[in-house]
Amino acid sequence: MTRIAAVTINRSQEDVRRLWEGTEDQLPDVEGVQFTPAPGGRGTEVRVSYEEAGLGEKLKAVAGKDTRRQVEDALRRFKQVLETGQVVRSEGSPGGTDAAQQRHQRPAQAGAR
Question: From CA 113, how far away is CA 36, in angstroms rounded?
């Protein structure tokens, strides 16, 4: 079944297209990508279509390695790098938002005052 994941990036279409090159190799099972102007002149919308298998995806989801999560994680990291220059991490989630790593992260703790 074909699915679509999308993200809006606050950069011009030309910048996003140029910086996208080489990134698609990091995305599993990608069928296509579209770059369109975001509504209201708010940058560029990146839409990625990918193939999501049936039962196998459900089993992979348990381990946090399903295609949907991998595509969404990759798009989130791409957006963060383009907008902030780095992938944002917190002390509570040093592995970032990667779904496969979240199982092994400790809960965030309130800081000492």
Answer: 47
Model confidence at 96, in pLDDT bands (50, 70, 90)? low
Looking up tokens 């089993």 gives 59
36: pLDDT strictly greater than 90 = yes
Q: Is the pLDDT of residue 10 over 70?
A: yes
CATH of the domain at 31: 3.30.70
Nearest to 62 by CA among 3, 103, 106: 103
- Would you say residue 109 lies in a domain? no
The β-bridge partners of 47 are 6, 34
Please say whether the dihedral angle defined by the alpha carbons of residues 40, 76, 24 and 12, taken in this order, is positive or negative. positive
Cβ(105)–Cβ(93) below 8 Å? yes
Question: Which strand (E) or helix (H) includes residue 83?
Answer: helix 67-84
Q: How far is residue 30's CA from residue 108's CA, in Å, rounded to a whole number?
A: 34
Q: Looking at the domain assignment, is residue 8 inside a domain?
A: yes
